[in-house]
Amino acid sequence: MFFEKYQFAKRYILTQNHLLAASKVKLHLIFVAFLLPLIILIASLSAAPDSEAGYLPVRTVINDIVLPSIKHQQNPDESFWQTDEVRANDTLNVIFDRMTIRDKDALKFFTYSPDTNALNTHLIPHRNILSEFNAKGKLLYLAYELPDHQRLVAKLTPDGFQVHTEKLALTKREVSRSVTIKSSLFGATNQAGVPDRITLKIADIFSSEIDFNRDLRTDDTIDVIYEELFNNGDMIGTGDILAVEIANRNKTYHAVHFGTASSKYAYYTPEGESLYKSFLRSPLEFTRVSSSFSRGRFHPVLHRVRAHKGVDLAARKGTRIKASGDGVVKFKGRKGGYGNVIILQHRNQMKTLYGHLSGFAKGLRKGKTVEQGDIIGFVGMSGLATGPHLHYEFMLKGVHRDPMTVKLPKGTPLEAKYKREFKATASKYMAKLKMLNHNTMVASQ
Fold first, then answer.
1. Higher pLDDT among residues 258 and 295, named by residue
2. Would you say residue 184 has pLDDT above 90?
3. Is the Cβ–Cβ distance between 130 and 83 less than 8 Å?
4. pLDDT band at 109 (very low <50, low <70, confident <90, very high)
5. What percent of the chain clears pLDDT 90, i.e. is strictly above it?
6. Residues whose CB is less than 8 angstroms from the CB of residue 66 and which lie 6 or more positions away in sequence, other chains included
7. What backbone torsions phi and psi does residue 79 show, to the nearest 5 degrees?
8. Complete domains list, the chain, with CATH
9. What is the pLDDT confidence band of residue 333, given thresholds at 50, 70 and 90?
10. Burial (CB count within 10 angstroms: exposed 0-12, middle 13-18, buried 19+), residue 430
11. SS3 content of the chain, % helix, strand, coil (to 5)
12. Facing residues of 130 across strands?
């Protein structure tokens, strides 16, 4: 009985396995029957040759291309604007060449017209010149920055150039900069974004306190607050220095800008002492001292030791020389080893001498009165000189003094009635300088 049940169960299982296997085979056949035509279609499409591609005709076509001429590309009404900065020893011809202005008629007009005298005899380094010219280099408009926030304007009209002077409508913005000396003053100020005109002004303000040619040291600092000037939204230059602090050789110097109704704008210490001196420390703008003051110096031409009663200020030939103080021309001409020389007589028995000049300022003559900063001559190497430089002497009551160290007469002190107003101004800017210095220290940490 048991055996019969076993045989029945076995036949049942085998039958079910056979049916299951047959069902799987049937499904596989259906799948293959569906997929095979699709594979054949794809294979035939990919393998079929492009019957038309091999029979496309090829033809080489060469056409001449006519390029438009430069003449046709130029718009006769198109103009170009350019701004340039006057450099030392510039002439109007040099400036025109640098600005690619090719207009001989305009150059002739500006050279001989009395209305444009400032462009020939009073070109001031670092002043801006704005020009408009067409594609042929013909000048259409020119504006030159004059002192006292004025501008000389020349505009081309059908009747020629019309020239006038206009007062600029200015807006001012206060700017603060921190400078750390690493190699040179100009290198450091340029890196900090301080314009050269401001740098030169700083040197002028402290010219009686610091010798900027020899005294600056690595890691000395300058904090300065000055004005930027804008006309119609465009920056046209810089204004006054409002306050400045210099840390030099573990000593700190300050200057605060202050103007009154009865005097010109001037610079004072925070205590109210005037920084203006009746003499410039050096008659050249920021120069390198090539020969320091000495009672016994080996002369490079005479080859013997002799007293060198002044200083030699190295500069390029033609560099302008300024009168170091108000005075009268006592001598102008040639004088032995000095070559071309000028001697100025000042008040209080003081005299200054300027030697080895290449030439004299136009109109300078014996007996003429000059003011501090007036141009009196030009650097050269006349007389006993091995290279272009200015030999400068300072004499007090007939005795030679070292121009770099002599104690210079002080300027007019601040009037008592202005001291309260000045104190408020000085306190405001000293606080700003302190904040600027603090921010610089934090940023460097």
1. 258
2. no
3. yes
4. very high
5. 44
6. none
7. -135, 165
8. 76-167 (3.10.450.350), 171-276+413-444 (3.10.450.350), 288-401 (2.70.70.10)
9. very high
10. middle
11. 30, 35, 35
12. 83, 143
